[in-house]
Fold:
Amino acid sequence: MKEFKKKIFDVLSKCVNSILAEPMIESSIRRAGVNCDKLSPGDVNRLIGEIQKSVKLFVGNPLDRKNCLRLLNQALLREEANRKIKVGKVTFEIKNESDIVRARSRGRVICQELGVRDSVGIKVATVISELARNIFRYAGEGRVEIEVLDTKPVGIQVVASDNGPGIADVNEVLSGNYRSKTGMGMGLIAVRNIMDEFEVESSPGSGTRVTVKKYMQ
Amino acid sequence: MPEETSRIPISKLHDNLIVSIQGALSDRLVAQLKDDVTDRIKNTKVFGLIIDVSGIDMMDSYITRTIRDIGLISRLMGVNTIICGMNPMIAMTLVEMGLGLKGVWPERNLEEALVKMQLWRKRSRLDARRRGRGRRSRGSK
Ligand SMILES: Nc1ncnc2c1ncn2[C@@H]1O[C@H](COP(=O)(O)OP(=O)(O)OP(=O)(O)O)[C@@H](O)[C@H]1O
Ligand SMILES: [Mg+2]
Structure:
């Protein structure tokens, strides 16, 4: 992605001494921990963020600084438009145990492709594992949908649904007082704790649908 | 995703059993591990059990609970358990989920786990000797 570096360089050299521009970019790349040959949308975001930080450090004149930050933002928007994040949905049928592993591994990969921090990928994979296991254990079969949302910041949504027996008292399960016969009874609470949005729709006889969202700061 | 092997290998080093967990585990593999470790402890003379999780892809409530159970079961059979190599982001996720691994001693990596085991081993030998001496001196009275 030499072109992207060049673009940033052009923007920067309009506001800072060009001797400074190069090391500013290089150190930002290092801090952002990105590989310039393979920039994901998340990487671009992070890289620009780091460059803006060093602009704030190195550009003393407030007017120049403001101008420079604005130009960088424009470059970022253009770049985002160029490589619009792949918004889409994948569905995994959960029928047996190995489907749990398949679904969660895919969730992790989707996050990696988006270029978000790996801690987010681990959380998404963990959540998929919990929800898919509940489907397999309590409903026998169902599905997990992983969807990249066109929000700002980018979000990832996981919907786990089944037509199983349903949960009699969702509130009790989520209160922490519920005693599970089959596990710790902590799965859904754990899921709620690490996601940004969490919703359970369930009633006896009509299946269960858990929807969670995580936004990629 | 790599095809999973049918069992998680358990090796023996000095007087310790070492389990190195790699990649993505199905629930069946995790459950199998619990049985295998228990069998090995029953049939082999070991002092400690070290579970190296540095290669694990993630830890959800089921895996966490099983590792904790393995630690508790081993303890009841007289074997100390250490978990090592926990990825910081997995640790963070566990804490945020509200899950813990109480009862299993953590170390940073395999080397440090082995050093710790050795230390415990020495201490338990010393204790045993001390107890032995105490009994003798009481007996001679
Ligand atoms: N998809 C589902 N269909 C029917 N019942 C469900 C479903 N998911 C969860 N439940 C019910 O809700 C309870 C709580 O689920 P949760 O995942 O929080 O804990 P658990 O599965 O019992 O234990 P853990 O996940 O800690 O191993 C379960 O015991 C089960 O009775
Ligand atoms: Mg569960």
User: Anything to note?
Assistant: DSSP finds four helices and five strands in chain B. Chain B touches chain A at residues 1, 4, 24-28, 57-62, 65, 87, 89-90, 92-93, 96-99 (CB under 8 Å). The mean pLDDT of chain B is 90.
